[in-house]
Amino acid sequence: MRTLSIRRKLLDGSAPTTGTLAPVFQITSTKLDRHRDRILGIKAEGAELKKPLLWGHASWEPAIGKAHCFQEGGVWLMEPRCDGIGARSQEVEAKIKADTLDACSIGFIPVEGYDPVPNAEGGLDFPLVHLVEVSIVNVGANEDAVRVRSMGGPTGGGESPVMAAALASLATSQAALATVIAKMVAKEDEEEEAAPTSAPAEEKDVDDEAEEEAATEEMTPKAFAAALVAHAEAGKALADAFLATEAEDEELIALAEGLRDGLPTDIEAAKGWLARAEEEEAEPTDDAPESEEEAKDAPLPEEEAKAMRRLVRKTFGFTVAQAKALTVRDLRTYAALCPPAA
């Protein structure tokens, strides 16, 4: 794909993640860690958090500085700022600059009302946590909690925050679009090869959960249109991010401008199709809940509840029994933490 080749070119021209510029670490992800646990969300009132910076979770020792945490594209990052007071702080700061220490780890406590849930891997899923501290460590529990780049300044290198978010969004949309297309092609092939058969109605009764799993494999026109729109918009965001860096490479500038200005009209048509489909699916209710809190506990239509349980199982690894045991409020909360379905 053209957008993929542009992305590769932009990546090839990025600055190295080591050097004299301020380092930036990713502090967590929803990936299963070495303890088989997952952090699904960090509670924050704003876009930034400042927490104690420790060495190896040594909470009994004075902090070695401050961890300046912030979000980019839904990812929590951190700039470690050692205060240079004491031998420990100076040593850790020097080893970070030398790229000897390139991993971190977080200390946290669950948010009240969001108790950890056992997952299918033998660990716990934490729906929402309070961040207590961030530690520089030799080896972190989460393999994504590592140094990802340097903090670029006005004249420095390093990948810009907007560019990093755009690249991540484009990669996600490319994978989602490829999956949708592959499934649609596979479904067409199966329909062409299958012999016409019609089983008696009494033989068509199958397990409810088996029907749910089969439904997740069906690629609808709506799923394809949504993935196509997301992919095009991610490519445009990538081009905008690159052009905002005031790059001087004329070839890359031309490619980025073409990507930015070349959003095809059929994408706009797909947007309109999606809007009409969503309007048709919307079911107006005359007895809406009186408050936002009541809305969280309002019953869900059975098909919507099934769809939410499928999404939660696929995203967080819950078993069928665990997903069915969730209250309506908890089901809505978990579904809201899931990435948008392609």
From TrEMBL:
Coiled coil: none annotated. Residues 187-218, 277-305 are annotated as: Disordered. Keywords: Hydrolase, Protease, Viral release from host cell. Residues 90-147 form the Prohead serine protease domain. The keyword Ligase does not apply. Transmembrane segments: none annotated. Residues 204-216, 278-295 have a biased composition (Acidic residues). InterPro entries: Peptidase_S78_dom. This is Primosomal replication protein N.
